[in-house]
């Protein structure tokens, strides 16, 4: 008994589609050294959260230690008329505060506004300690975006992995972005950090989110353009509704 032509066509199409999907998945997995890309994205997201949690833990320990020292000094000086127990300064701590913690960046007052022009204000200058934290956090995000991605192999597979990785990290960074934005943030009293510092961190984390969003969009366009051409890539980005919204946002956010 002969098989109908449309059944053969459907079966062939299904098999071909499955083979093509398996081929893309295999190329993506090969580009990450044999590790499932989705699992790796989840692990890197957890690592980023753990990094922020460890930094918060260090700040909490620092806060507890300073409050304990204040309490001990207060109790000790209550029954002493001269109050000279703590007259000698701790020179190491003084050096750290003077040269790192409160030191201005590039001999500029760290609360001074940094303006590209009279109409463009990008916030205030950080202290040296804040600058070290921002550079370290930015470098961590860059490393997480490209780690375990083989750029020497297939361009399409590498672009797809970079697209997914940068998109996931952009969404993950939205969590600290909104936490740092709240004026009634409970971390202000818990960690003893001022709202101005959180506002500065909010601005710079927002810039990291913007860069990762742009990387996500450009990787998608480059991947599609490599196989179908730029016209088809922009057509996909402007005709599919959810892609159109993301394409518009990724273009407008840096301007805002």
Describe this entry's structure for a reader.
It is built from ten helices and two strands; from the N terminus they run H-H-H-E-E-H-H-H-H-H-H-H. The protein has helices at residues 5-31, 37-78, 91-101, 128-146, 155-172, 174-179, 187-191, 195-228, 230-239, 241-252, and strands at 113-115, 121-124. The longest helix has 42 residues, at 37-78. The chain has a two-stranded antiparallel ribbon with strand order 1-2. It is elongated, with a radius of gyration of 26 Å. With 256 residues, the protein is mainly alpha-helical. A hairpin with a 5-residue loop joins strand 1 (113-115) and strand 2. The chain has one domain (31-105, 112-252). Helix 8 (195-228) packs across helix 9 (230-239).
CA distance, first residue to last residue: 67 Å
Percent strand: under 5%
- Average pLDDT number: 76
* Low-confidence runs: 1-27
How many separate structural domains?
Answer: 1
Q: Give the fraction of residues assigned to helices.
A: over 70%
Structural class: mainly alpha
- Count the helices. How many? 10
Shape: elongated
How would you write the strand order of the largest sheet?
1-2
Radius of gyration: 26 Å
DSSP, total strands: 2
Compressed to H and E, one letter per element, the order equals HHHEEHHHHHHH
Largest sheet: 2 strands, antiparallel
Attribute tags:
single chain; 256 residues; mainly alpha; two-stranded antiparallel sheet; 2 strands; elongated; disordered N terminus
Q: What is the gist of this entry?
A:
The protein has 256 residues and is mainly α. The chain contains ten helices and two strands. Strands 1-2 form a two-stranded antiparallel sheet.
